[in-house]
Backbone:
């Protein structure tokens, strides 16, 4: 699987040039007209929910107005952006879109495009991490599972790696610990 990330300006300036066979997906809510020719398709389900982005943006603006250094980092930390966005990605709609992107990436290179050049504070990094986590050869690292009910009574299935609680225990010797909000230590 080949999935990479970049930002709109790098595409527009041809600092990044995906191969002809690559699929380029914008993971933003709205793609401006000038960028229509840069991407194959928009995937707004992989953009942050509007409420989360609005909360983060308001904190960033307030921190910036107060002269706080690195207002963007402050906004990510104070809104718990990363945790909340990861939780959102595990909901039904985004999870299905991630599966589709993963299928595309098994057939050809895929590029995910968003706005920020610095991916430390861009949701693109989190989407890429989630996709890479889904394609690993084994289960999640011990303690990193996100459990939900499976189709068999009493069996849980990890939303990230797809292994069942029984398989994780029997095959990989991991302990299954369940709490609200996922697998916590």
Residues:
């Amino acid at each position: 699987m080949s999935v990479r990330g970049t930002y709109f300006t790098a595409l527009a300036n041809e600092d990044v040039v995906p191969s002809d066979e690559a699929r380029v997906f914008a993971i933003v809510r709205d793609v401006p007209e000038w960028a229509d020719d840069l991407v194959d398709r928009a995937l707004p389900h992989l953009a942050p929910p509007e409420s989360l982005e609005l909360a983060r943006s308001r904190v960033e603006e307030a921190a910036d107005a107060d002269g706080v250094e690195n207002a963007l980092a402050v906004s990510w930390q104070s809104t718990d952006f990363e945790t909340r966005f990861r939780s959102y990605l595990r909901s039904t709609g985004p999870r299905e879109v991630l599966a589709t992107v993963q299928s595309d990436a098994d057939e050809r290179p895929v590029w995910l495009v968003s706005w920020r050049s610095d991916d430390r504070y861009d949701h693109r990094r989190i989407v890429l991490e989630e996709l890479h986590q889904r394609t690993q050869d084994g289960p999640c690292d011990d303690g990193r599972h996100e459990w939900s009910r499976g189709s068999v009574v009493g069996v849980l299935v990890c939303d990230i790696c797809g292994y069942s609680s029984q398989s994780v225990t029997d095959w990989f010797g991991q302990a299954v610990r369940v709490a609200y909000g996922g697998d916590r230590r």
Notes: The CA atoms of residues 52 and 81 lie 7 Å apart. The first strand starts at residue 3 and ends at 7. Helices lie at 8-12, 50-65, 71-78, 81-89, 92-107, 123-134, 165-172. Strands lie at 3-7, 23-26, 41-42, 110-114, 147-149, 156-158.
